[in-house]
């Protein structure tokens, strides 16, 4: 460990702290705590104690106190979904999102959806922002409008050809109202479905239900767009088949028509004119096929795609993943020109539209919505998935301690008393480096296991 830290070129203070932590008597227990968080980058530190009693006799079955832990604290994962803030917790969040979206596509009775949802009409829609001015891009095999054939990772991609004429105010106002555009889209979608089915809106609602699962993604130009799974269900949700008229063609036609109808008006303010915000013309609607149908876009591909972007935000455009209070801060922190101008536009527009809280969301380029959302009956919830994981770990702990399972008794036979106090978060510099090393080792082990899985399955099949 010491040699590795030295080779990493750590500054003397950090190296000294690494040696202090690694040389402590309770280092093994510290490592165990951090491994349980997956190598969390910013763990929550708690101080407290728990005591499990036999309810009938009052006898103490188990007692735990953080007094015996390294530093007198218990460290728990922060749970941050942003990969830029905590890769370990973001990996867990992405996995949960994947299972949530996939359950709504292929079905999983344990997650609230029967396998028959695979037979329901399902579409994958991408709704984008309109143009706010020409930007550098890669239009197929043709050169960009600037005359250059940009590489895929060219830093100028998504930046304006002429920043002085680019509508920065319109771009951040569009981001700021994107969630409202989505809300109106879902309203109009139901109306368009009823219209195409020849039914009243009430009759259409009584015969069918729409379910959604969506994530937000930033384009290189800094504009938000939404990827959404849209599914037709029967009147009682995924447990009932949709009516005969609820076809995939009807659904895709209704999606296009609804997107074209959406308008959100922004009143004039100061030097800003009145605006009518709409979706962009680059609407993409694709059919989602089952795994064995040989189509390009499969259930697994859709779930993986949405899970990937559930952990990313505006920082992918070069902006910050934390709030910025003024224009000078964006300059000092080295934000590239294009996202910096978008941040500045948010700060300039805040006094004109104070109810839109553009200053608070300047680091998000104006967007203030949730990045991962779903309708109530689409599938399970992130909270339910987290609870399942917590219950599993609690059962493991009870088994290790020899405590009774409360589900095995008709009435609770034990009583748990607990007291916890928040004691801060994060690491010392040396702890941070060691935690990052632990996370890297965990990731490498996962990648190795993923690479070896096909070979193991092939060997298992041969043995059978």
Automatic annotation (TrEMBL):
It comes from the Bacteria. It holds the Pfam family RepSA. This is Replication initiation protein. It comes from Streptomyces violarus.
